[in-house]
């Protein structure tokens, strides 16, 4: 499991890393960032750098945005990311709930509270991964978490499963794939596309726009159904 710490105080970084490594040892891969911009750059450059858990200083202030906003942007792009905020200033606490944090740890850091927060998040991650669905491709098995599927594309007898962390291509019918991943409320918007509504930002003209800025066409005969399905989902999850 991967964990990143982002704080502008090197002593805090070193302390948090020491506490976590003492408890989790080699189970947890820990990286440190003194600047949220470096964290962003690392994640966008290579998705393998995206942590499972991010511990972020809530008061971090960059030139044009705060650590809260960086965390929010990363969480929207990588929904499985769990965020734990660190803060010594209570006045900013209300701001964090815009991005669904997993926990909050106050400064000065209480080691037991820190480990309790990390342990709780690890349990959440393990629970979500327990619902992964297996697929066979060319003699090997790969796992897909239904909640991390952004959309499914059908093309020339193959389907492309576009996930948060990459794309898998297998020979399969769209309908069969959707049945396998039925833990999510997928919406078929076109004969070639099926979307996970949790990643739909808006519907505009004849397209749905996803959180990763992908635009997918909606067939005219399905437009009414797609809009109704999206509105139901948004109302249910707002």
Main attributes of the structure:
single chain; alpha/beta; Rossmann fold; OB fold (Dihydrolipoamide Acetyltransferase, E2P); 15 strands
Report on this model:
The chain is α/β, with parallel strands linked by helices and 238 residues long. The chain has two domains: 128 residues, Rossmann fold; 105 residues, Beta Barrel (OB fold (Dihydrolipoamide Acetyltransferase, E2P)). It is built from six helices and 15 strands. Strands 2-1-3-4-5 form a five-stranded parallel β-sheet, sandwiched between helices. A five-stranded antiparallel β-sheet has the order 10-9-8-12-11, sandwiched between helices. A three-stranded antiparallel β-sheet has the order 13-14-15, with no helix packed on it. α1 crosses α4. The longest helix has 19 residues. The protein is globular.
Strand adjacency order, main sheet: 2-1-3-4-5
CATH architecture of the largest domain: 3-Layer(aba) Sandwich
Residues in helices, as a percent range: 25-40%
Helix-strand string: EHEHEHEEHEEEEEHEEEEEH
Low-confidence stretches: none
Radius of gyration, in Å, reads 20 Å
Tally of discrete structural domains: 2
General shape: globular
User: CATH topology of the largest domain, which one?
Assistant: Rossmann fold
Q: Would you identify the CATH H-level superfamily of the largest domain?
A: Response regulator
| Main β sheet profile | 5 strands, parallel
Mean pLDDT: 86
């Amino acid at each position: 499991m991967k964990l990143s710490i982002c704080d502008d105080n090197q002593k805090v970084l070193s302390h948090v890393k020491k506490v976590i490594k003492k408890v989790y040892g080699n189970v947890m891969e820990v990286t440190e960032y003194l600047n949220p911009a470096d964290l962003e750059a690392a994640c966008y450059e290579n998705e393998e750098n995206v942590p499972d858990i991010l511990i972020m200083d809530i008061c971090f202030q960059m030139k044009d945005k705060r650590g809260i906003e960086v965390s929010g942007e990363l969480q929207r792009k990588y929904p499985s990311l769990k965020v734990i905020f660190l803060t010594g200033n209570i006045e900013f606490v209300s701001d964090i709930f815009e991005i669904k944090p997993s926990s909050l740890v106050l400064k000065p850091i209480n080691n037991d509270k820190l480990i309790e927060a990390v342990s709780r998040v690890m349990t959440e991650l393990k629970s979500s991964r327990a619902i992964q669905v297996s697929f066979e491709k060319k003699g090997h098995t790969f796992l897909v978490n239904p909640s991390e599927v952004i959309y499914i594309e059908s093309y020339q007898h193959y389907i492309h499963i576009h996930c948060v962390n990459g794309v898998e291509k297998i020979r399969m019918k769209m309908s069969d794939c959707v049945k396998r991943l039925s833990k999510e409320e997928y919406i078929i918007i076109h004969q070639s596309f099926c979307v996970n509504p949790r990643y739909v930002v808006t519907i505009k003209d004849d397209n749905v726009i996803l959180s990763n800025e992908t635009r997918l066409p909606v067939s005219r005969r399905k437009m009414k159904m797609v809009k109704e399905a999206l509105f139901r989902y948004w109302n249910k999850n707002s």
